[in-house]
Write a structure and sequence with these properties.
The structure holds two protein chains of two kinds. Chain A is built from eleven helices and 15 strands. Chain A is of the alpha/beta class. Chain B has six helices and 15 strands. In chain B, helix 5 packs parallel to helix 6. Chains A and B meet through helix 6 and helix 7 of A and strand 2, helix 4 and strand 8 of B.
């Protein structure tokens, strides 16, 4: 059984902040089948198309029949912990700093054996449930959980290395003016965030939900206009060293593509509020977060973007908006690579049209703002990197994977 | 004019015998701008982007790039800003007569009324009462409406409610009268526009814009320090940026007044 983690004390200003180290990074190209699944929270194994044998680790030919027809498929998660090992003095710096560290050998019910990181409540000879997780170097690793829920199980030390759990962390939500922003604040507080800083641009403009937001315990309203470089830099100067999770809830949705718009001021606003806002936030908050990736219980852990699924494929009805989202998606991959040395995850939450005023004329299904908020918290707790919220987002993803050209024509008709 | 007089004036400014009052807010990203319904195009807010500050991007020098709309901060409205002035000659900031950029001012103090009622409207009787004390408003003078609105915090300054802004301004009749009967050169206010916050509901809507610009006159808004000006006797220097076909511009507005008169 796990002792619940305690709220971290204030840092000793005389102590040096521990710099982040990464666990071993090298993987084969085939192994990235696991990375892809781990990013989305799926459990996959290679399965032979010829003889249906599951195998692990990733390889290019079936160990049973030598067929090259190995495909990653969703696999049953149940296994048995055959043996466990506790590493007391590992050679690798990352693990050495975190020793003792437990690993074990798991025999899957579907066949293969996996070396896995162990949750503290996993016992030798007992059933376990497996997942693939992204570790601090962003690579997929096998992780064994006890089969049933145990007390304080999310507080497990090794599990927290794999996740960005908001519990006892300090979060910046960049825009509290929107319904999505307010739902995210509420969800993060409920998930145990110690403080939520909430950005409000142009504080002289009143907004719906303002009184409720201001009355929330452990919520601090801060001036933040992400379109303004100086505003972002000023806020980072104040709180940049204590933002463990950043959730960018800024949204600027306008209907229209190219030919039916006059001039470029709307496009410019979209770029300013979306792409440039992202750049400002990244430049102001990114360096401190990367540096604080191993800073104890409330280390910097994650950066969350809420992106339209039309970042993946342009929807001409919201064509210019789609393009600004695509630019942000591309930038998120850059940020992900640049934050990786700090072990800070970049989580992209893709949504279809939200049930908000700017998608008023779009027919359902639409995504409720609360759904976005709960998906974000769930992604942080599970350590995911790519999340698709709602039916439209999932549908677009599948159609894109099946035939990008068909999707282009369909969205443009 | 005798050139000696101009030199005397320069000496008076230098010696402090003529006092210079700055009527301008600092141009900054924090300052409220006009808010239109979101489906309309919006004024770009003020943005100050550093190019370099004695750093790797420019080791010995500091400079910024600026972006802002023509109608941000303390700014000038030219006749071309409104449809009523669109066909007038010399109606943009680059073509308007430079001599119009220096003109005397009449300051009407309505700060008490505005403190009581954020929707206070300046009317003909109010101006007539002012004229009883200070004399008839001469032609080609600015009328500056003092409300002390510039002393408020930004939220009260913008004073946005769910039915729009609530800030003082002129009514329709007084605007037509000031332009046609008094021949003023323009109207200056402390609020975000020359018109009242609820002026969209007047007839015609936005009468200050309608009559001023239709008559080839000017607007000044987001002024401050009007409380330091005498009712008459101050001279306003208001030279907008020479923007090609510009409808307005942020600018430095100065008031010159003889010492002892404030």
């Amino acid at each position: 059984m796990i002792e619940p983690i305690a709220k971290p004390r204030r840092k000793n200003p005389l102590s040096r902040t521990r710099l982040p180290m990464s666990p071993p990074r090298a993987r084969s190209r085939a192994s990235h089948g696991f990375t892809r699944a781990a990013a989305e929270g799926r459990f996959v194994l290679q399965c032979c198309g010829a003889c249906s044998t599951f195998c692990y680790p990733a390889r290019d030919a079936c160990p049973s029949c030598l067929s090259a027809d190995l495909v990653f498929v969703d696999a049953p998660r149940r296994g048995m912990l055959l043996s466990e090992t506790t590493l007391h003095v590992p050679a690798d710096v990352y693990f050495r700093e975190r020793a003792p560290w437990r690993v074990g050998l798991v025999a899957m019910d579907c066949g293969p054996k996996l070396v896995a990181h162990l949750h503290a409540d996993c016992e030798e000879g007992r059933p376990v449930t497996m997942s693939f997780q992204l570790d601090k170097s962003g690579q997929a690793v096998a992780f064994a959980h006890p089969e049933r829920e145990t007390p304080n199980m999310t507080d497990d030390r090794q599990w927290r290395e794999m996740t960005a759990d908001p519990k006892f962390r300090r979060v910046l939500v960049t825009n509290g003016r929107s319904i999505v922003g307010q739902e995210v604040v509420t969800a993060l507080k409920a998930a145990g965030a110690s403080i939520v800083f909430v950005g409000v641009a142009e504080p002289w403009k009143p907004f719906r939900g303002e009184e409720t937001l201001r009355a929330l315990e452990g919520v601090q309203i801060v001036p933040l206009d992400i379109g303004d470089e100086k505003s972002v830099a000023d806020l980072a100067a104040d709180i940049g060293g204590k933002v463990d999770i950043l959730v960018n809830t800024s949204e600027h949705v306008r209907v229209g593509g190219l030919l039916d718009r006059q001039g470029t001021s709307v496009v410019r606003d979209e770029i300013d509020q979306t792409y440039l806002g992202f750049v400002h936030l990244a430049q102001a908050f990114g360096p401190a977060m990367r540096m604080r990736g191993s800073d104890g219980v409330n280390s910097a852990a994650a950066w969350v973007n809420i992106l339209s699924v039309y970042a993946l494929a342009n929807w001409p009805v919201f064509g210019a908006y789609s393009a600004s989202q695509a630019a942000s998606l591309s930038l998120s991959h850059c940020l992900r690579a640049e934050l990786r040395p700090g072990g800070v995850k970049v989580v992209n939450v893709f949504t279809g049209p939200l049930d908000t005023e700017w998608f008023q004329t779009v027919p359902p299904p639409k995504v409720a703002p609360r759904m976005v908020a709960t998906s974000i918290v769930s992604a942080l707790k599970r350590g995911l990197e790519d999340v698709f919220v709602g039916d439209v987002a999932e549908d677009i993803r599948q159609r894109l994977a099946a035939n990008p050209k068909a999707l282009e024509r369909e969205l443009g008709s | 004019m005798d050139s000696n007089n101009l030199m005397q004036f320069a000496d008076a400014v230098a010696s402090g015998a003529v006092r210079v009052v700055d009527l301008t807010f600092t141009l900054s990203p924090d300052f409220p701008v006009i808010v239109l319904p979101p489906e309309f195009g919006q004024a770009a807010p003020v943005r100050i982007q550093r190019i370099s500050q004695y750093d790797a991007a420019g080791p010995a020098w500091y400079w910024n790039n600026l972006t802002f709309g023509e109608h941000t901060g303390t700014h000038f409205d030219a006749p071309i800003h409104w449809f009523t002035g669109k066909d007038l000659p010399n109606n943009s900031v680059d073509t308007l007569p430079v001599s119009d950029m220096i003109a005397p001012a009449c300051v009407i103090d309505c700060s008490a009324e505005a403190a009581q009622d954020p929707d206070f409207l300046l009317t003909i009787p109010v101006v007539e009462a002012w004229e009883k004390s200070h004399g008839r408003i001469p032609p080609r003078h600015w009328v500056l409406l003092r409300t002390d609105w510039s002393k408020k915090g930004w939220r009260d300054y913008a004073n946005l409610k769910d039915d729009g802004a609530h800030t003082p301004g002129p009514d329709a009749a007084v605007m037509r009268w000031l332009v046609e009967e008094r021949g003023i050169i323009g109207l200056g206010t402390e609020t975000i526009g020359t018109d009242a916050g609820q002026a969209g509901h007047l007839d015609p809507p936005y009468p200050a814009h309608h009559f001023l610009h239709g008559g080839g006159r000017y607007g000044l808004q987001c002024l401050c320090n009007l409380d330091q000006l005498p009712p008459t006797g101050a001279v306003i220097v208001a030279a907008p940026l020479k923007i090609q076909n510009g409808s307005g511009s942020p600018l430095r507005v100065l008031a010159l007044l003889p010492v002892g008169q404030a």
